[in-house]
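Weekend entry, working from home. Most of the wet-lab plans are on hold until the incubator is repaired, so I used the time to fold the two sequences that have been sitting in the queue since the last round of cloning. Logging both here for the record. First:
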Amino acid sequence: MFRSLKFLWCYAWRVDKGYLISLVLYQISNSLTPILIMIFPKFIIDEFMGENDFHLLLQLVVFFTTGIFLTKLLSSYFENTAFYKRCIILERFQTELGERLIKTDFENLEDSSFLDMKQNAEKFLYANGQGFSFVLDRAVNIIGKLFIFTTIFSVLLAMNAMILAIFVILVLINSIAQMHLKKRYADLEMQKNPKERRLSYLNSLLSDVAYAKEIRINGQHEFFISKLQGVLRELWLFYRRQMQLLNYSQGILHFVDLLQRGIAYLYMIYAVSRHLITIGDFTLYINAVATFTDAMNDVLDSINDVRQYSIYFESVERYLNLPMKIHAETAASVSFPEEIESIEFRNVSFTYKGKSKQALHKVNCRFSGKEKVAIVGENGAGKSTFIKLLCRLYEPESGEILINGINIKEFSYQEYKEKISAIFQDYQLFSFNIAENIGLQNEIEEARILKDLQQLGMKEVIAALDQGVYTALHKDFDPHGFEPSGGQGQKLAIARALYKDALIIVLDEPTAALDPRAENEIYNTFSNLVKGKLAIYISHRLSSTRFCDTILVLKEGSLIECGTHEELLDLHGLYAELYAMQAKYYR
């Protein structure tokens, strides 16, 4: 628990010390108000029942009301200041979390245990939607309540030491019971995280326009609703058990409150009847007991909240300290070459996490930096894995990948990313404007974007749009957004790759959804635009490989053939077999 508080305290102190100072001052000033409200009636009633001095009564009223006004004013000021500064810290932290997520190794994003850990970490940092540093706020809240206790303790001690001791015992019993129930509640939270993540996924499917056509046309709504209902039923069991725990918790809390107030009232009635205390004292003690009970319950809630969410802190530490094997290598031993002479895979093998079979097995190949290279093979042959390793989304399990004879690990990852561009089969166009989708930078050269689009045959399409390249893509945020066709979308993705002006450009089946003629047109256009650079193509349609200088044929993770189109046909191997199978459909 203390490690989690230390983490938040140190982070907030590093970003903006004013937040913590305002938070503490808010709790102190906020604690003064109930103390004044508790004491105020005693002095008024005692004076009224005694000397009944009007001027003194007036002074007391002015003094206490002014004091209450000032404490509330200060409390509001420090609360608003703390809220403003908390927003600054939240913005900083969200940025750092976003950077961390972007830089985490790609394999983590395909690991369900990482995604569960990320969700647990977010539950600690955002406390189930209750706001950043909720845990820290609740901890500092205890400071304010302790300030109240120092005052109330002396009041209750003056009333009766035995009753105060009974109160303390009841508080301890309540505290132990609450901690036990909160622990069980938190355990249920951890268990239901995967279910909530699945629910979020299903809800996103139902609201995502990309899936809407398929769900509606194929009449799949009943299937998806049944999936949704199944997850909701599982979650309902968790919610019911959590509700039962909350009922037990509240029942114990109210029972202890009843005992405290009942004991106090019985004693004070006895004390007043025996003239042991004044009516003013009676009022003071009544208010003190009520304030003590409310403050004690608030402290217990704060402690239990901190304990509950601190259970997730282990996930925060693991998430923030997760080693980044690829991004960690930022100190480059050599600069990336201005020109690529050769790329070589030397005995490269790779196995996906949780799999026993290798996706690539001892792959050896070499090609020059200005070739057009095609990678072909049946599904599951290892084509996309080959590209992911070249793009450094993964690291080889064994072997090495060399550029100009230098292991790619020797290059700065940031610099390496700038030299390679890829268009994947599942490429994404974002709900930004067209220029931002192509440039993916804050500063964009419009002339270059227009040139690339013109070369790809998109000039007339863009010219027909009211805002040109600044027209929004999709209608998520703009009802007049542009919805590109399949071919137009692929051309925008290719324009993005061209704009980057990288030395290596990869096309990983981005035209799979197009007809052969449209695919051939895009490949021919792309081939002319990337002359002098290394272009790597992946395609199931082997007719598009004829213009390539080198063709790599993969089967079950192994490289079994390598050569030109004519050379591979002469081998009468797998490539020739696949080519013949496809060619017969076009005769």
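Second, folded right after the first finished:
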Amino acid sequence: MSRPYLNALTWAAVAAGISSAMAGTAGAQELAELPGLGDLAGTTVNGASRNAVMLVIGMTLLSLAPGLAIMVTCFPFVVTVLSILRQSIGLQQAPPNMLIVSLAIFLSWYVMDPVLRDAWQVAGAPLQRGEITLGTAFERGIEPFRRFMAGRIDPGTMEALAEVAPRANDAAPELDPERAPLSLIVPSFMLTEIQRAFSIGFLVSLPFLIIDLVVSAILMSMGMMMVPPTVVSLPFKLAFFVAVDGWGLVAAALVRGYQGGG
């Protein structure tokens, strides 16, 4: 194929593209000038813009979901207790970390369902309908989580953080969880949850510690001091945990601890 022929085809394609673009623009202008279609086009553009904004917001929230789950929900408490439980039994990788985290996520979802529904009703749904702005939606949506965290915060932990917090104009920070800034509420809530998780973990690990001590004493009395007690006690701990329906009891206790405002 000769070069002049290729040049002719190229210019023809460019001309066709320009003509199509001009025709599309002219057609859009004619449709906009027709009675009623201009408003419809504007409504469609506004709806598409709103959907695009909601899509961007949704993708942003999905990227921030792990951080939000750790900061303002019961996830830190649940996953810490489950991890301590696994270590107390003597299992290193069973259940695996992914399973522990997945179970903690769904238990947290079950506990936080009323809070999530309230946040959606007061912030998510109005924002989707275009009735409020993003800033107003954040202010409304954070209130259910603020009330949830306020019911769980240890006053002593909050006071300790308030004492070391940087102050502007020597003004003491508000210690009421209902009105305190999020920069004080969120770390106080997280530290309180971790502290309570350690307390529950201590109670959960006691039965398995007793089994280890009993097995160790029996092995020493039999002169089998070279046998690791943890290896012998592991089957007994597993049998005990299964016999008492340990997973069901622990899950029910974790959920029940958040009923009635914590």
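Plan for Monday: verify the second prediction. The chain has two domains: 13-69, 73-256.
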